[in-house]
Amino acid sequence: MSCLRRSWVEINLKQICKNYQVYKENIKKDVDIMAVVKANAYGHGDVQVASCLQEVGVKQWAVSNILEAIRLREAGILGEILVLGYTPLTEIASVLEYDITQAIISEQYAQELLSTNLKVKCQIAIDSGMNRIGLNAENVDLCEHLIRKCYEKLNLNGIFTHLCVADNNDLDSIKYTKEQIERFNVIAERIQDLQLKYIHYANSATGLWHRNDKNLVRLGIILYGLKPNYENNLPQGIKPALEWKSVISMIKTVYPNETIGYGRTFCTKKQMKIATIPTGYADGYNRLLSNKGFVLIKGKRAPIVGRICMDQFMIDVSDIMDINEGDEVVLLGGSKEEVLTADDMALLIDTIGYEIVCNISNRVPRVYV
Ligand SMILES: *Cc1c(COP(=O)(O)O)cnc(C)c1O
After folding, report:
1. Nearest ligand 1 atom to alpha carbon 221
2. What is the pLDDT of residues 106-162, one digit of tens each?
3. Which of 135, 164, 227, 343 could serve as a FRET partner for 154 with CA atoms 20 to 30 Å apart?
4. Does ligand 1 come within 6 angstroms of the Cβ of 276?
5. Residue 66: CB partners within 8 Å, gap ≥ 6?
6. How far apart are CA 249 and CA 101, in angstroms?
7. Tens digit of pLDDT for each residue in 184-219?
8. Rg for the chain (alpha carbons), in Å?
């Protein structure tokens, strides 16, 4: 694969497989993994990630929408592909054609799906307290009724719920997670006689840090070596699988009392050596990193000066010797002893590692190493 050495991402598929294996070693033996590869596998390349995980035995996949599901099928991904979110009913023919499993996200959605008289493969989403999608778990009778009806008329093979604070350590969150699981289990018990194949609630965080009495984990962020939350440490051996690199396009000297970039937000107090990096917010390099973030060059941190532009930004390299135009810089990843992860970057701008990697745009070539 060709790579334009302007701004590019290197993805280590072996590390993703290793993360999967280490994660598996840290949970109960009989628990299966559903690999969550939505949003282009959190920016890592869905087809590449799924293909390598398929080789090590993964047979279940979760995506956010039907187009992502079709992409996987067309690339030869086998097994169960669950669409976690909304698919317009106008696309239901594709769900059948590609043997996709669609989440039923509301009562109305269930009724509409039932009225098509098609044997759509599906799982029912239960809302146990997140208030996003799913049947309200408090209405146990209605949930049971709909599950049984869908079981009869559609091809229903599971139910699931999603936990909204499973990644938090405080007592309140732990209590809330327990309550969510209990609410879900009330429903699971009611329909036990149906022996549905897939009954699940665990995401990455739940699988490691909560009691999972079901036999499936929907493994997303930890597959990619990032943390669900800063508070928790990942098991030994799980590491980020993605490095984002760019180069120095230009180096110049800037004199005292000059300003750098749009809005003139950075003013030099002394003479500085400034380098320009040909990556910008159109590549997904967050503009909030303006005057805040840093990159790594030859094992040293170089702070961002001025605003991130659409396609470029500037860094202070006054203290870094022996650098030249064309030299590689690390936007995410390791450089000698220094490491800058997507989680570290997220912390600087009050977001989460998930968003950092998902936002790396299509303009940035992915290289598989
Ligand atoms: C994205 C998603 C997951 C994966 O969550 P991680 O925190 O990345 O493990 C699991 N379940 C649902 C419903 C999701 O939307």
Report:
1. 8
2. 999 999 999 999 999 999 999 999 999 999 999 999 999 999 999 999 999 999 999
3. 164
4. no
5. 83, 87, 91, 94, 95, 100, 102
6. 47
7. 999 999 999 999 999 999 999 999 999 999 999 999
8. 23
For residue 231, the model assigns a pLDDT of 81
pLDDT at 125: 98
Concatenating the DSSP letter of every residue in 206-251 gives HHHHS---SSEEEE-GGGGT--SSTTSPPPTT----EEEEEE--EE
pLDDT in tens, 210-264: 999 999 999 999 999 999 998 889 999 999 999 999 999 999 999 999 999 999 9
The two tokens of residue 316 are: 């202070």
Q: Three-class SS of residue 84?
A: coil
Expressed in angstroms and rounded, the spacing between residue 245 Cα and the centre of ligand 1 is 27
Task: Supply the pLDDT for residue 230.
Answer: 86
CA of 33 to the centre of ligand 1 (A): 12
Does 228 sit in the ligand 1 pocket, CB within 6 Å?
A: yes
Burial label, 166 (beta-carbon count in 10 A; 0-12, 13-18, 19+): buried
pLDDT of residue 222: 98
Which tokens belong to 296? 């790594």
